[in-house]
Design goal:
The structure holds 2 protein chains of 2 kinds.
Chain A (H helix, E strand, L loop, with lengths): L13 H13 L2 H14 L3 E5 L11 E4 L5 E7 L5 H17 L14 E6 L5 H12 L7 E4 L1 H12 L7 H11 L9 H11 L9 H24 L3 H21 L8 H25 L14 H21 L30 H10 L6 H19 L16 H8 L14 E2 L2 H10 L3 H11 L3 E7 L13 E6 L4 E3 H10 L7 H4 L5 H7 L6 H10 L3
Parallel strand pairs in A: 3-4, 4-5, 6-7
Antiparallel strand pairs in A: 1-2, 2-3, 7-8
Chain B lengths: L14 E5 L5 E5 L11 H6 L2 H34 L11 H10 L3 E2 L7 E2 L7 H13 L2 H28 L1 E3 L1
Antiparallel strand pairs in B: 1-2, 3-4
Helix pairs in contact in B: 3-5
The chains are: A alpha/beta, B mainly alpha.
Chain lengths: 542, 172
């Protein structure tokens, strides 16, 4: 990428070169698109949009404006482009890329844009010859430029160079995270640990400009880690990796008071990737059901878990669309689609109720959906009381939302490395916020019926000392709080308490992007508290 | 003692807080427990897996001991604070057990009078031996009388239990 005044890289790190090469060669265009956008931003372009696989792209996957105001449009491809691929697939899109104006309110349609074909493979010689010929004739006024594997590799390495700590331990962590089959669940705590190091979370004296470079590097490494999952079309895991990245970026933006210019564009790129990947998952399930979630016949036993993993992301997408007032959320109500999600929620721990909570927040606002909404919350209460209530005979009970699907699968098949001796009788993390939701929904009769048993429960929650830490995977300073409910509870007091939770203790950066919160919860289910659910209730009321 | 306590894992944070029914709030810091074991160079040459396991077990027992001591200290403080001690601090005997039963809340499994959830007795070894001596010396009549008194306490506790259940409700 030597064009347009962009610095030529000096790659010094052979491991980094190989690692980026490996990632880039195994990625398709969707895989490297977020990082390509990040690269543009780092090099002074203002990103206007980045879209994935839609009918509206008009040959332009990414549109950006350079420092002097020149608009650029990029068509991204994956792999080598031979003459057949060029003629059958690529050239028709390039004709549209060059021939149609950029549709964006901030870009003057009269000003010609510069068109780029970008691929992480090579363009074969006979295609190059054809491009040269077209540039001399049909595309003379608006010639096509291209960047291929070597250009991307240099540009990406340039961004990463000097940012990754040069110690063997960090390299090993990256290798462990990158070289995986991509069909299962990533080890989220390790992903988070690695990205936290790249983002220098604990380094309080880091300059803001350095933080911007840290963010760019973290985007690269997150994409490298997500690479195998993208390649395996494991959209749910890909989304969660990118959600972790975005949460950490919001954390440093809040904690270190970073101005928008240091992180907001990165937010938009990553958010676009999360949203687009979740939509790919939704399209896949709406078209073929959950078939693609199972790669081998041996997966049969895992079906409920994999379905659940996908459903929790799709319901997060729907709630996110609902919050953003994007009518796409209505696909939930489509009678041809809704049956595909039947029995897609399996009960394996408290976190497994999250999709029901998300659905409730939407359905309570839909005419005729109120009964379903309240019934779902009642089911959650009944299940928790059955599994963890005082009459429960369960050895463990429903595990807290800190335990994820990966744990549930291992526990079910006896694959845990140590014996699990915890017991959660009488305890619950989700019960209190769910009771409060039912109070807001005016379900006094149900709560009156259940209160005798509910009053024996102990409501658990985690309260961070610094509210900004809320976006972290694990928080060092904070209180594990248990609340014992009153035996005799006033209904008026219960409703008042429920309504007092409106998100006031949540980080300001998170509240700037309420549409991200459902995805955050689908990845960090242990952060669903009274304050969070109260906040979601409030934003879905508007 | 630790094996009788049902465990819960805390995944983050450095303290534990309890908000009681009456609004009372108690915050306690997490306590750190650690133990060490070492293997000398000389030992490495002759050490067998069982020897290593023995060292690990000793370290684990040491840690469990620290945790138990912490647990008893916390229990002791809570009991003193709530006034749940038997006046005069009598020695452990059938009589003192009945007095203790009178003082505590007893739960009943499935709300069934025949299924009281009896408390666990934790004693020093010497005190337990004395208790057994009391039992061995008791006549059949004394044992019957003891059983009758214990059942009467349980009847009272069951009434309290049911009254407690009835008081658990939502009001205006």
């Amino acid at each position: 990428m030597g064009a347009d005044g962009i610095k030529q890289p000096e790659t010094k790190d052979p491991f980094l070169q190989k690692a980026i090469e490996h990632w880039m060669d195994s990625a398709n265009e969707l895989g490297y698109q977020p990082f390509f956008c990040e690269w543009l931003v780092t090099n002074g372009y203002v990103l206007k949009y980045s879209i994935k696989n839609t009918h509206f792209e008009q040959g332009k996957d990414v549109v950006a404006v350079s420092g002097d105001g020149t608009p650029y449009a990029f068509q991204l491809k994956g792999g080598n482009i031979n003459l057949k691929k060029w003629r059958d697939e690529v050239k028709p899109e390039i004709d549209v890329l060059i021939g149609s104006a950029i549709q964006h309110p901030e870009i003057d349609k009269a000003r010609p844009h510069i068109s780029y074909l970008v691929t992480n493979g090579e363009i074969e010689d006979n295609v190059r010859v054809e491009i040269v010929a077209l540039n001399e004739k049909a595309w003379k006024d608006t010639p096509l430029h291209y960047w291929t594997r070597g250009d991307l590799l240099n540009g990406f390495q340039q961004m990463a160079e000097g940012i990754l700590p040069k110690d063997a331990e960090t390299y090993k962590k990256l290798i462990d995270l990158m070289f995986t089959e991509g069909t299962g669940f990533p080890e989220y705590s390790k992903v988070c640990g690695f990205l936290s190091e790249i983002l220098n979370l604990e380094n309080v004296s880091r300059a803001k400009e350095q933080r911007r470079r840290d963010v760019a590097a973290a985007v690269l490494y997150a994409n490298m880690i997500a690479g195998p999952y993208r390649a395996a079309k494991n959209h749910a895991s890909t989304v969660r990796i990118m959600v972790i990245l975005l949460s950490l970026i919001l954390h440093i933006a809040g904690k270190y008071n970073l101005e928008d210019k240091y992180w907001l564009k990165s937010y938009e790129i990553i958010w676009g990737d999360i949203y687009g990947t979740a939509k790919l998952l939704e399209q896949e399930v709406n078209t073929d059901g959950f078939d693609a979630s199972f790669t081998t016949p041996f997966d049969t036993e895992l079906i409920p878990f994999r379905k659940h993993s996908a459903t929790s992301i799709i319901y997060a997408l729907k709630l996110s669309q609902f919050i953003a007032k994007d009518d796409d959320w209505m696909s939930l109500l489509d009678p041809s689609i809704a049956p595909k999600y039947k029995q897609s929620v399996a009960v394996w721990g408290e976190a497994s109720f999250l999709p029901l909570v998300m659905l409730t927040l939407i359905l309570r606002r839909v005419t005729g959906g109120e009964v379903t909404a309240t019934n779902q919350m009642k089911i959650v209460v009944s299940q928790i009381l059955t599994m963890n209530g005082r009459h429960s005979k369960q050895k463990v009970g429903l595990v807290p939302p800190y335990f994820d699907l990966d744990f549930a699968v291992k526990a079910r098949y006896g694959m845990l490395e140590t014996e699990f001796e915890d017991n959660y009788k009488y305890h619950s993390y989700y019960l209190k916020p769910v009771i409060e939701t039912l109070a807001r929904l005016n379900q006094r009769d149900f709560l009156t019926e259940q209160w005798r048993e509910l009053s024996f429960m102990r409501f658990d929650e985690f309260v961070p000392t610094d509210p900004n830490d809320f976006l972290l995977w694990r928080i060092e300073k904070g209180e594990n709080r248990t609340t014992l409910p009153k035996k005799e509870k006033s209904w008026a007091e219960l409703v008042k308490e429920a309504e007092s939770f409106d998100g006031k203790t949540l980080p300001a950066t998170l509240k700037c992007f309420p549409e991200f919160l459902p995805f955050f919860l689908a990845t960090f289910p242990f952060r669903l508290t009274s304050e969070v659910l109260g906040y979601l209730y409030t934003v879905t009321d508007k | 003692m630790l094996s009788m306590v049902s465990g819960k894992t805390f995944h983050e944070g450095d303290s534990m807080g309890v908000v009681h029914e009456d609004g009372r709030y108690v915050l306690s810091p997490s306590h750190h427990a650690e133990s060490q074991f070492s293997v000398s160079r000389e030992e490495v040459l002759t050490m067998k897996p069982d020897d290593l396991m023995a060292k690990v077990s000793t370290a684990a027992e040491d840690m469990a001991g620290q945790m138990e001591r912490d647990l008893f200290q916390s229990l002791d403080e809570s009991i003193k604070e709530s006034g749940n001690t038997i006046p005069g601090n009598p020695e452990l005997s059938p009589e003192s057990i009945l007095i203790a039963l009178e003082m505590i809340t007893v739960d009943f499994e499935e709300d069934d009078r025949s299924k009281p959830v009896m408390p666990t007795l934790v004693t020093a070894p010497g005190a337990f031996e004395k208790l057994k001596e009391h039992e061995a010396k008791a006549t059949e009549e004394e044992k019957e009388e003891y059983k009758r008194r214990q059942e009467a306490i349980m009847d009272k506790k069951f009434k309290e239990h049911n009254a407690g259940l009835a008081s658990r409700k939502i009001v205006d």
